Please model this.
Amino acid sequence: MADDLRKVAARFPVEGEVNDIRPLGSGLINDTFRVCTDGPRDYVLQRINQAIFQDVDLLQHNIDCVTRHIRSKLVAAGETDIERKVLEFLPCRWTGRSYWTDGTQWWRMSVMIPDALTFEEVTPEYAGYAGEAFGRFEAMLSDLPDKLGETIPDFHNMELRARQLREAVAADAAGRMADPEVRALVADIQTLEDEMCKAERLFREGILPKRICHCDTKVNNMLFDRDGRVLCVIDLDTVMPSFVFSDFGDFMRTAANTGAEDDPDLDRVSLDMEIFKAFTRGYLSSAGEFLTPVERENLPFAATLFPYMQAVRFLADHINGDTYYKIKYPGHNLVRTRAQWKLCCDARAKLPLMEGFIRDCR
Ligand code: GN1
Ligand code: MG
Model:
């Protein structure tokens, strides 16, 4: 494997000799490696999961447009240290494209941003910086001249996710519907389906817009410097038109959870209102200007929607026999489902608190 990885790395114009290539990060979809060199910088090498991102040309087109646009905004604003504030992908030595493929595997390489930290958990102070950064990310992309495609069509469409769960239940491909707990979870989760498909209805009524969003605002998808300032938003595979609920909701789902995404101890799982408040304040400071009243009023709904959608996705994957998410042990997707469902229920109980906070945040 190490030799193969070295061969892949050699397809890109790496400066210096490669010393070591080792796994990096905790993503559930792509395989990510750090390429250590004796040159001035290290690199991040990624194998793109092509089963999930079927149109890699479109995927890389989106990423190229987004990074180019952000870079030009940073330059225009007279920012310094730009290399640490936006990702830079290397062109393949042969094709000049921002990825390389041998026809069976797809790879890309970016410059590793130095002295940057990622976190699986944040304090309220850092949540505030993160809120400001994601709001700014959306604001910077609000005048993107290029048209982006949906790298995963209908990625955050709740109606589709609900349908996929129903299809998984009907097919019962792995025989997991025999488990009474699975049946009970499906039934409980489906009671909220109507409530959770609100955004798609508002969109059809013409009162909820789509904007360019990040769509995977897990807290570990942003890089911080040592003082807690957000340097850069990473993991751009899912940047595409969506509702702002995607970015707000997925951050709350991950960073405002007092437990882990897959916590086996449900007593640890709940929505932390201090993180909610700090992120919301930060987000409204940079996104407040472009948000419409409908978007703003429904941010608390987004904090309930994303744990819900994730519970639906994990449960469907469990029922399908774990074909989508990487799992660490048998039943992992079921453990994840329980934790996300608990978080959704807790967030729903806190809706009045969240709504009150947003009203007062003027
Ligand atoms: C996946 O690979 P990662 O961890 O960045 C997933 C997200 C889920 C997340 C759950 C393309 O993201 O949508 O919210 O796992 N990405 C895709 O942890 O499905
Ligand atoms: Mg990630």
